[in-house]
Amino acid sequence: MTDRKLVKPGRSVRRVPARCDDALALAFKDLARKSGFKIYELDVKKVRPKASIRLKCQVPLCEYYGVCRVCPPHIPGVDDFKKALRDYRKAFLIVLKEKIENIEKYRTDFTAEIKLADFVSVLELAAFRHGCYQALGLTVGGCKLCSECAPLNEPCRRPFKARPSPEGFGIDITELAREAGVPVEWPPVKYVNFMGLILL
């Protein structure tokens, strides 16, 4: 709805964008603290999609490429995402850090990734309720919400929670995290970071 006080007689009605302000950032940080996550507010200009990152979905071929409904080639390309990114003003990096006991367990145990996906959904909903109806959540690559993705001729079973990965849109989430001051080991040795992104 448009605030009538902002519309002058004789001029066309213009939509006033929702305020995604500091109150929401504080709410995000409070939710993160209570849920065991860390959250970093970023200048959205630091999000720089690159074709070379998206290319890693194909070389070597990721097992989710062409299979997962929220992975390439089923999502918009890097150029389209760059255009959409112009409409966003803020970005929040979400980090779930775990101490590694056995790195191999993450090949079959997706508990941390599902926890991240759930939390990204919580933040997205909080933003929506705050008036930021264009809030967009991204989470670690390859949706793990179902044991296997629905066949391509069937609808997604979890459309309101399944989200693309930052890398699927060409975002180097590791570089972004390091620029934000997150100590990221690559390859991971002592700790592993599961990371997502919220755009407002």
Description:
This protein is α+β, with helices and mostly antiparallel strands and 200 residues long. The chain has one domain. The protein has five helices and four strands. The chain has a four-stranded antiparallel sheet, sandwiched between helices. Helix 1 runs antiparallel to helix 4. The radius of gyration is 18 Å and the shape is globular. The N terminus is likely disordered.
Task: State the gist of this model.
The protein has 200 residues and is an alpha+beta fold. The chain has one domain (39-199).
Kindly list the characteristics that best describe this protein:
about 25% helix, about 200 residues, 4-stranded antiparallel beta sheet
Average pLDDT score: 88
In spatial order, strands of the major sheet run 1-2-4-3
Apparent shape: globular
How helix-rich are the residues, as a percent range?
Answer: 25-40%
Largest sheet at a glance? 4 strands, antiparallel
Strand content: 5-15%
Structural class: alpha+beta
In total, how many beta strands?
A: 4
Helical region count? 5
Q: In the residues, how many domains can be counted?
A: 1
Query: Taking Cα atoms only, what radius of gyration do you get, to the nearest Å?
Result: 18 Å
Q: Distance between the terminal alpha carbons, to the nearest Å?
A: 19 Å
Spell out the helices and strands N to C: HEHHEHEHE
Give the low-pLDDT segments. 1-18
